Task: structure prediction
Amino acid sequence: MVDVAVIGAGQTKYGNHALGLKGMWAEAAERAFSSIDGDFSPSQVDEAFIGSIAFGGAQLGNTAALLTEHSAMDGVPVRRVENACASSGFAFRDAWMAIKSGEADIVVAGGIEKMNDLTPERKRYWLGVSGDTEWERLAGLTFPGTYALMARRHFHEYGSTHDDLVNISVKNHLHGSMNKLAHIQKEVSFEKASNGFMVADPLTLYDCCPTSDGASCVILAADHVVREFTDSPVWVRGSGAASDHLALHDRPSITQLRATAASSKRAYHQAGITSNDVDFAEVHDCFTIAELMATEDLGFAERGAGGQFARNEEGLLNQGSVTINPSGGLKSKGHPLGSTGTGQVVEVFKQLRSEVESNRQVRDASIGLTHNVGGSGATCAVHVFGRDRN
Amino acid sequence: MSSLIWKGYLLHAEPSFTLVQSPFTHRGERVFGADSDATTLAVAAVQHRISEQSITMVTVPEGIDTQTLISSTSITVADESTFDNCEWDLLLSDEATVVLMQRGTEVALPQFDVDIPVNSKFYAAIEGAWVEEMQITNVSQGAYVSVAQYEEAAASRLGLVGQKVPGGMTWPPRQMDGEERANAEDTPLVHIGSVQSWTRLSAAGAPSEFSIRAPLLGGISTVLLRLKDGPSGVFLVVDDEEPVLSMELEMELVVRRIYAQEGIIRYGLKARAI
Result:
């Protein structure tokens, strides 16, 4: 079966972006196109998948076609992919499958979200839109609350503490401070992160990702055309995805995301590696507790040992066993919902080609991983990438 | 019979009547708590009477949400054709009091010695907030529970009706169980569970349905309960009490107002410490 590689990737800076949907997408697409080493024309794209939850609420229907129209991909078959915060992780998987199927040679996967063009009251639009609304919303839950329930339970079952979460926040802010595309390019002290405004007890402001605008775009190619465009492709070594109960209360455990565990197992198997082989991972840390649990579910730490992993700074850039979120993660790089999944791929693409800022380059990186979660864990896509094809 | 605290209310029961009253007072008068009203008191009265004896039908005055009463208790509400033969009547009093009485009997109102004064400013703010929420134009931003969706699940939400399925009990109900369409027997679950986790959301982190009242309440609390019958669920904690939450704390589920929008109050089960 055909192998697939990423030949180009680009994104906007995350944060409060001056441009609207069309402008942001065009910026990300142009950066992706121009990152391709050889000659490339957008007209060569066979298929496109764009992830978003609500496109800022500005254009609810047929937005994907609007975006390709504004990025020189007129006429390309395109559709929106929606799986909450994992929308573009799944858009990427769909693009990968389109090539795997043999129907397409060059495919675009991307994502976009415009979140900051709303008034403060209308910004609540984004709160809790992807849970089991009928039950969780009537129980007053938004995602800060849902993840707070997970955190308190993890503390109770495994003895992890809020200090462990603070360590994750401090680490990701440090990484993000070196990333020119990050929403929050600022370090935060342990003391400050410990004493943040309480959003959903026990999670404070420093445990929560910001509300970001952003777009990201990735170009995938089949093995038989890759060399037309680059000598430094980033190969997609494995793709795994899974789903779980939408509502937290329907799951047998709330201290692990089963969809993550299942997705990573499939992705590792396909790549022929174990978690020990991963040099760095872009992990879905919408809340710090999400990163703590992900380190367990992805196999970087034993079940229940995620707190200790964070305490020992195992995920710190070039210090521990595996660098976690060298981009700053959702916590610092930002979380424009639909853009996050392919935004993670942009980071992996650049890391594996040694194209990020030198002070945050993962040393000797040859295998990277992306982990993109929808909502509180109902959907998950994990991808493994390598410098080498096998 | 007896006087006791029942579902967070004061209750006095005699063979011929059940009286339920709010424990809160304002300027010497009984008033409803922050998320209580005549409907929630009526539900408590019927639930208690049903727990003591078999009654199947009541008459209901204006001011009580009939559908909520039915969904919460499975009682039949008398209509024009059955009104004359109905043996039990629900009555409202001005002072946050509901009486369920056998027709033709007299009720001697007891005096409870429980009296929880409510801060005047808070009381006025909460009352005003409910009026504001009830405006027909008040609709939440973003995700939204429609009236149809709310009503479809009313029995399981208000009556805690679960399903017997192979291997145990499930709640909320599912459309399919395993490979088959779920046609499992509906089974009301015990309204008691233990805390598996909890959080208190700041007003800023609460869904927009709560944006008017959450700031007044200083946020809202949610618990994940493992119900005695097995399933788990998430529930708001009652607004008019402030329990100290802890793991394995036993809580009961009581009917309270959740929020209002489009001129309709959404009722649901909330948790209170036993």
Q: What stands out?
A: The longest strand of chain B covers residues 250-261.
